[in-house]
């Protein structure tokens, strides 16, 4: 199976590669976009800073070099939905894309992948679509989770859910920690989702959007209430 | 297990309520960041009621109409109706003798700003009509517009239609109360928190501005969030 991570930085690509390339039968590529079309100097300065942050920069460079030599590292200089970028994606003949860039995909980009593009959404679908869903889940007393599904061109409306994993919020003291924990699970859950996709008799759960709501970015006052809720829970657990 | 979940929900609600009441306390003086003295003068005889509703002690007035409520008409104009709701006065209404025109969400989405504003003003002249079941898709669309396109414009300090944004905020607030939906209340929270430079232009329509803030003040002290 050919899989490509669509990332907004090389560091993210390498992080996902470490997890997904361990899967037998998976031929993995990294597609790195230039979000916001940064000028070259700013783009590469950012990449350099992110590489340094990884603290494993030797491994990082070795991995990038190996991907680059084998033609599995694609650097896009045009926007992702530009015809030239779409043509480059198609040339990879990928079965599955992994969403790891802060973009909304057009149909042509999605269609460049035979099965589609997977997204690790940090909320329970179909209940929680949109933004700040981890915070909204805590505020409304619902469990926090990650749902991996095949996207379409809407906001978390893709109809095929591959898997869902509940991740407790009880260890997080605030919203920032909670989101960091949830976002940090993406590579592992992509690996699990790919295992499911290649398994015999695989079928998707239907994402029935009529059973959920779309959420939006949360205000400061409610975010601060969620911080207090999380803090009170970790405080109670410590006692 | 279930008992602990109930306890957790209770504790979350208490935290949420106290946050909203803190915001209400802040709004008692914070409204002056939005409504200038000049705008207040333009409110005429309503100015005293607005100041009292915003600066006074919490006086929550439930607008919840009967569950069997049908489409209503009223004689007052829309700004008066919105101010009346905000300051806790009733609106005299009667069941409509004609059926409201069908407005699909896709048609509504396709309207340009001016046409959209005219449609909203005519359709929700009696503002509580927004809470009817049949209007829920339009209400969702109002929320989406506010939190996606309008929010982006205000944050980027780009041009925006003041009347359109303010009316949507008031209708969203009314829907929040009638449907008990926190997402809708939070749109008001979000716009209230925007920096001064983003909201300065809202003074162009003192009536709609005052109505939004008064409705917001009422929502914040509603006892059942």
Shape of chain B: globular
Strand content of chain B: under 5%
**Cα radius of gyration of chain B in angstroms:** 17 Å
Total strand segments of chain B = 2
- Would you list the SSEs of chain A in sequence order as H and E? EHEHHEHEHEEHEEHHEEH
Taking the alpha carbons of the first and last residues of chain A, their distance comes to: 49 Å
Supply the number of helical segments of chain A: 9
Major β-sheet strand ordering of chain A: 3-2-1-4-5-7-8-9
Please name the two chains that share the biggest interface, counting residues whose Cβ lies under 8 Å from a Cβ on the partner chain: A-B, 21 and 25 residues
Number of β-strand runs of chain A: 10
- The percent of residues in helical segments of chain B reads 55-70%
* Average pLDDT score of chain B: 90
Low-confidence stretches of chain B: none
- Strand fraction of chain A: 15-25%
Overall description:
The complex is a heterodimer of chains A (239) and B (225). Chain A is α/β, with parallel strands linked by helices and 239 residues long. Chain A is built from nine helices and ten strands. Chain A has helices spanning 10-20, 40-53, 57-69, 83-91, 107-111, 133-139, 175-183, 186-198, 220-238, and strands at residues 2-7, 27-32, 73-75, 96-100, 116-121, 128-130, 145-150, 160-166, 205-206, 213-215. In chain A, the strands form two sheets. In chain A, strands 3-2-1-4-5-7-8-9 form an eight-stranded mixed β-sheet. A two-stranded parallel sheet of chain A has the order 6-10. In chain A, helix 5 (107-111) links the parallel strand 4 and strand 5. In chain A, helix 1 crosses helix 8 and helix 6 packs across helix 9. The N and C termini of chain A lie far apart (49 Å). Chain B has 225 residues and is mostly helical. Chain B has one domain (18-221). Chain B is 61% helix and 3% strand. Chain B is built from eleven helices and two strands; from the N terminus they run αααβαβααααααα. Chain B has a two-stranded antiparallel ribbon. Chain B starts with a helix and ends in a 5-residue tail after the last helix. Chains A and B meet through helix 6, strand 10 and helix 9 of A and helix 1, helix 7 and helix 9 of B.
């Amino acid at each position: 199976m050919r899989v490509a991570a669509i990332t907004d930085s090389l560091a993210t690509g390498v992080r996902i590669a470490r997890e997904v390339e361990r899967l037998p039968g998976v031929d993995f590529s990294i597609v790195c976009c230039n979000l916001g079309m940064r000028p070259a100097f700013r783009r590469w300065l950012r990449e350099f800073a992110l590489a340094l942050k990884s603290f494993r920069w030797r491994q990082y460079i070795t991995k990038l070099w190996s991907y680059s030599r084998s033609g599995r590292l694609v650097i896009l200089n045009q926007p992702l939905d530009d015809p030239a970028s779409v043509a480059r994606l198609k040339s990879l003949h990928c079965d599955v894309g992994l969403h790891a860039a802060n973009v909304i995909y057009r149909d042509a980009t999605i269609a460049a992948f035979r099965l589609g593009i997977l997204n690790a959404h940090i909320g329970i679908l179909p209940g929680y679509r949109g933004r700040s869903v981890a915070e909204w889940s805590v505020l409304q007393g619902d469990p926090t989770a990650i749902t991996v599904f095949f996207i379409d061109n809407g906001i978390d409306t893709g109809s095929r859910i591959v898997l869902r994993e509940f991740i407790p919020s009880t260890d997080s003291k605030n919203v920032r920690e909670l989101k960091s924990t949830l976002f940090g699970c993406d590579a592992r859950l992509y690996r699990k989702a790919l295992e499911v996709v290649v398994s015999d008799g695989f079928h998707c759960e239907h994402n029935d959007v009529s059973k959920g709501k779309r959420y939006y970015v949360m205000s400061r006052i409610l975010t601060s209430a969620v911080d207090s809720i999380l803090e009170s829970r970790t405080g109670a657990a410590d006692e | 297990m279930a008992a602990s979940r109930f306890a957790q929900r209770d504790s979350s609600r208490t935290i949420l309520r106290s946050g909203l009441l803190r915001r209400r306390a802040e709004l008692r003086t914070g409204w002056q960041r939005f409504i200038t003295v000049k705008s207040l003068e333009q409110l005429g005889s309503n100015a005293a009621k607005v100041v009292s509703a915003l600066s006074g002690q919490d006086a929550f007035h439930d607008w919840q109409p009967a569950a069997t409520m049908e489409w209503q008409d009223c004689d007052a104009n829309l700004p008066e109706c919105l101010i009346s709701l905000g300051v806790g006065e009733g609106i005299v209404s009667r069941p409509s003798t004609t059926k409201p025109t069908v407005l699909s969400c896709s048609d509504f989405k396709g309207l340009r700003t001016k046409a959209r504003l005219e449609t909203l003003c005519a359709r929700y002249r009696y503002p509580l009509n927004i809470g009817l079941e049949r209007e829920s898709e339009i209400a969702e669309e109002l929320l989406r517009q506010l939190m996606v396109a309008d929010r982006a414009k205000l944050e980027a300090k780009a041009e925006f239609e003041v009347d359109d944004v303010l009316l949507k905020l008031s209708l969203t607030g009314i829907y929040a109360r009638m449907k008990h939906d926190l997402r809708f209340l939070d749109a008001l929270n979000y716009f209230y928190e925007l920096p001064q430079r983003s909201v300065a232009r809202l003074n162009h329509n003192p009536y709609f501005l005052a109505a939004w803030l008064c409705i917001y003040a009422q929502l914040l002290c509603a006892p059942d969030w």
